[in-house]
Write a structure and sequence with these properties.
Transporter; Outer membrane efflux proteins (OEP); MdtP/NodT-like; efflux transmembrane transporter activity; four-stranded antiparallel beta sheet; OMP_efflux; alpha+beta; transmembrane beta strand; elongated; 11 helices
């Protein structure tokens, strides 16, 4: 075996043997929540199996959400952080391999001798080298753990982007529903104001005829002013909702889409989640992100532990030299090589390594708490949404009946007032009851849609297009 072959074999043996991982063995923390979700009917299809296009029924809202995924500035910021993490991962991985550097040199010279009539000496030289600069042999896993930490940080950022997309989809749909509800409330207030004006005109005529009191007239006038004030409030709310949608979408709303915003029929529909195990919460992007952060913190402990042990680095190179550049290609050259191993042994650093290790352990403890907190929050969000789901249908049925009954009562009271059988106070009471019932029904329809989105937000898993999922 030649010296070169022996050196290569020795180097390979060093790299392939003796590599120790100083990171603690990872164990996923036990989820601090009940083992089962409070699901009414586990046989139904759930949020975790649906895409947002299946949850959102309105084509106009689907178009608006797709536009927001392209234009929203907050989402662009999150995407940029993913690219930063990707670049940091590439940098970390480069430490696993030696870096090669090449150099070349050429020199031409001529020397004149003044002591003679004419004398000169011409010389030239050419050399080329390639070398390895300080490649650290990762015996104790410092570089590998640093690389693992960068990988988990990158994957955590990917999950963070997915969570941001789910949140954006839900936020746009929520803003759409709120705009639709406020438009209905504005329409109701305007209709009520017009009805109150008609009642005021009737009361004025009855007052002029002497069959209605001034109290009735003042009450009718006050009811008109109250309805107009509420209409102005809801008009401001509609404008505010439009501004919110513009911000979320990241651009002006297409006029046709803005005009199509409505609360009924419901633009979103979602069944109860599938399965009874709370382990479905582990598929949430924010929970996965928290676990990736925990894995990164675990790897950082390994890197901090490895700093207590010696580090071995290799450097070396090979080179050739000749008279002129053509000699390098014709074989008329001299060759040489160098090999320089070095060992760095930590002795005393005034507690720097211990401080780094303590910080890494504390970060891991914080990551565990964050992970467990993310699971607890996920369980709370799902449980709250399911609690509303179990009662919202009964609430809607009751409010629809209430709105119908108060509408009939209002018509009867108006007829009795015209006939002189009741005073205007009875009419005002009937109007107020009907108006309140209509408002409650609109709010219940809004809550129904918002609760469907809450279930989607709590359980959805973002499905990336084929081929776009990052690999480890």
């Amino acid at each position: 075996m030649t010296r070169h072959h022996y050196l290569a074999a020795s180097l390979s043996a060093l790299v392939l043997t003796g590599c120790v991982n100083m990171a603690p063995e990872y164990e996923r923390p036990v989820a601090p929540v009940p083992a089962e979700l409070p699901v009414a009917d586990p046989s139904q299809e759930g949020a975790s199996t649906l895409t947002w296009q299946q949850v959102v029924q309105s084509e106009e809202l689907q178009e608006l959400i797709a536009l927001s995924l392209e234009q929203n500035r907050d989402l662009r910021t999150v995407a940029a952080t993913v690219e930063v993490a990707r670049a940091n991962l590439i940098t970390a991985r480069s430490g696993l391999w030696p870096s090669f550097n090449g150099s070349g040199n050429a020199q031409i010279g001529d020397t004149f001798d003044d002591s003679s009539a004419y004398s000169s000496t011409f010389s030239d030289s050419t050399s080329a080298q390639i070398g390895v600069s300080a490649w650290e042999l990762d015996f104790f896993g410092r570089i590998r753990n640093t690389n693992d930490s960068a990988l988990q940080t990158y994957l955590a950022s990917v999950e963070g982007e997915r969570a941001a997309k789910i949140s954006l989809v839900a936020s746009v749909a929520e803003a759409w529903l709120q705009l639709g509800a406020d438009k209905e409330l504005l329409r109701l207030a305007q209709q009520t104001a017009e009805s109150q004006k008609e009642s005021l005109e009737l009361t004025q005529a009855l007052f002029d005829a002497g069959t209605a009191s001034e109290i009735d007239l003042r009450r009718a006038s006050a009811s008109v002013a109250s309805a107009q004030a509420q209409a102005a409030t809801f008009e401001a709310n509609v404008r505010r909702d439009i501004n919110t949608l513009r911000y979320l979408v990241g651009t002006d709303l297409p006029p046709a889409i803005e005009a199509s915003v409505a609360l009924s029929p419901s633009p979103v529909q979602l069944n109860l989640p599938v399965g009874q195990s709370s382990s479905v919460l582990l598929r949430r992007p924010d929970v996965i992100q928290a676990e990736r952060t925990l894995l990164a913190a675990n790897a950082n402990i390994g890197a901090a532990r490895a700093a207590y042990f010696p580090s071995v680095s290799l450097s070396g190179g090979v080179g050739v030299a000749g008279g002129d550049i053509s000699d390098l290609f014709e074989g008329d050259y001299a060759s040489g090589w160098t090999f320089t191993p070095s060992v760095s042994i930590p002795i005393f650093d005034f507690g720097a390594r211990q401080g780094n290790l303590d910080a890494a352990r504390a970060n891991a403890d914080a990551a565990i708490a964050t992970y467990e907190g993310a699971i607890q929050q996920a369980f709370r969000e799902v449980a709250n949404a399911l609690a509303v789901s179990e009662t919202i249908s009964r609430r809607l049925d009751a409010l629809e009946q209430l709105a119908e009954d108060t509408s009939v009562t209002l018509n009867l009271s108006q007829e009795r007032f015209k006939s002189g059988l009741d005073d205007y106070l009875t009419v005002l009471d009937a109007q107020r009851e009907n108006y309140d019932a209509q408002q409650q029904l609109i709010q219940a329809n809004l809550d129904h849609g918002l609760n469907s989105l809450a279930l989607y937000r709590a359980l959805a898993v973002w499905k990336e297009p084929a081929g776009s999922t990052p690999s480890e």
